[in-house]
Structure formats: structure tokens, C-alpha cells
Amino acid sequence: MRQVKVCGMREPGNIKAVAKMPIQYMGFIFYGKSSRFVGNTGLSDWLANHTDILDGIHRVGVFVNAELDDILNQVHDFALDYVQLHGTESPEYCAELTNLWSFSSVRSAKLIRAFSVDESFDFSVTAAYEPYTELFIFDTKGAGYGGTGRQFDWSLLQQYHGTKSFLLSGGIQPDSVEAIQQVNHPQMIGIDINSGFEKEPAVKDPSAIASFIEQLRKS
Q: pLDDT, tens digit, for every residue of 198-208?
């Protein structure tokens, strides 16, 4: 069974419903320009009072060129297990963040580095991030940061020869199972879904996710 990350969650009732699915990661977006931005919704307090709901599911915070202090605070407030960097963060940025956690008693998290891919993307740039990250995500390059709802040419993944495992993202829909089956890469461990499974921004369709995962399991 491939690992599944559901990103862009915000609404408590929807979180509770999606958490019943056999998923491994749930993503929360801390980028103010995103329509799925967590914002000041009181979600951290709700999660703190309902810790059992996400038992066994890794909490992932998605950030775009954020100040390090902001990341440290959100990791603490939301009890994040992973920090996903989705901007232009450099390897030096990653090193500084991991060093802060190494020499501090504050809650730490593992790093995920997301890369925006198009025909001109140079997969060799990922090598410099390997010492600091747990996982990569390959997403579709768009005009701005964050998801585009479009799929990039997945055959480009054959240009990736790194040792770090990755999740495939970008334009995945409920009917994408067959296309995912065609992606044969030794470092691909799962997929990252978001807008293709939404009723509206930040509100996922649990039945669509359940059906998709069931089909994925059979593949």
C-alpha cells in the first residue's frame, strides 16, 4: 500500500472524517496567500483537545519562505511532526532550522522539501537537501507557490536519481489510480492529494478519498 498524504485541511469536522481513512499524513497550510490557510481559526486548540483523532497520523505543516520563528511557534502550537517547505528555501535555510532544533529544547519536527517540477527542472538540485530532509515531494510548477491542480509530466521523474524517498503530488484526481500505477520509481513511496478531492477549498470529500485509497490498495 502506498502512503497517502491529504493536504490543505482546516475544518474540525472534516478533519475528523478524513482521519478515519487509512492515511499516513495530514497537511495544514501556514501560507497566508493560500485559500486553505489555517489562519486564526482556533484549530490548534481544537487539535490539542482532540489528540486521539489524529492518533497514528503524522501532522505536516506547510510553509512558504517563512521566518524561522514562525515555524518554531507553529511546530509547538500544532504539535507538528513534519515541516514541509514549499518555497525557495535553500539548503542553508534547512541546515539552520535543523541546527536550531538540535541545540534547543523546543519541540522539533522532520523536514520535507517540496520541489516544483516542469520540463526545465534540474533534479540534481535535490542532492544538497538530502542531509537535512526526511522526504521529498515533487509537485507541479505554477506561477505562484502551492498547488496548481494540474499534473506535470510524470515521466520526468526518471531523471531523479537521488536516495531520498518522495511523495508524488500535483493534479491527482479520484480517477488518477491507473496513471499512478504507471509510475515506476524505486524512491516513490506514496502520493499527496489536495484540491482534486475537495468539495470547496479546505473541505475534502471523505467518500472520494476512501474509494481512491481502496482502488490504490488493489493496484
A: 999 999 999 99
Q: Which residue has the cell 536550531?
A: 100
Tell me the backbone φ, ψ of residue 172, rounded to 5 degrees: -75, 130
* Grid cell at residue 60: 505536516
| Listed residue (4, 62, 79) closest to 28, CA to CA | 62
What is the maximal distance between C-alpha atoms in the chain? 46
Q: Would you mind telling me the total number of residues written for the chain in this entry?
A: 219
Cell (9 digits) for 80: 507538528
**Domain annotation for the chain: domains and CATH numbers:** 3-218 (3.20.20.70)
**Contact of 174 with 211, CB cutoff 8 Å:** yes
Cα atoms found within 13 Å of the Cα of residue 136, Cβ hemisphere only: 24
**Which letter does DSSP use for residue 48 in this model?**
H
Q: How far is CA 3 from the centre of its chain?
A: 12
Crossing angle of helices 91-102 and 68-77, rounded to 10°? 50
Q: Check: CB of residue 17 under 8 Å from CB of residue 50.
A: no
Q: Is 177 helix (H, G, I), strand (E, B) or coil?
A: helix
pTM above 0.70, yes or no: yes
Cβ proximity of 193 and 5 under 8 Å: yes
Instruction: Give me 58's grid cell.
Output: 503524522
